[in-house]
Amino acid sequence: MKLLKGIVKIVLIGLLISKQMYAQELPSCCTDNIVSRAALLAQHDRETQQDSKFAPETQMILIQGGTFSMGSTRFPDAQIIRDVTISDFWIDATEVTNAQFARFVEATGYITVAERALNPQDFPGVNPDLLVPGSAVYSPTDAVNGFQNHLQWWQFVPSASWHHPEGPESNISGRENHPVVHVAYEDAEAYAKWTGKRLPTEAEWEYTARGGSDSNAEFYWGNDLKIDGKWQANIFQGTFPENNTKEDGYTHTAPVGAFPPNGYGLYDMSGNVWEWCSDFYQPSYDPMQTSDPTGPKSSYDPQEPRAIKRVQRGGSFLCNDQYCERYKAGARGKGEVNSTTNHIGFRCVSDVTTIQNRE
Ligand SMILES: [Ca+2]
Ligand SMILES: [Ca+2]
Question: How far does the centroid of ligand 1 lie from the alpha carbon of residue 351, in Å?
Answer without folding.
Answer: 33
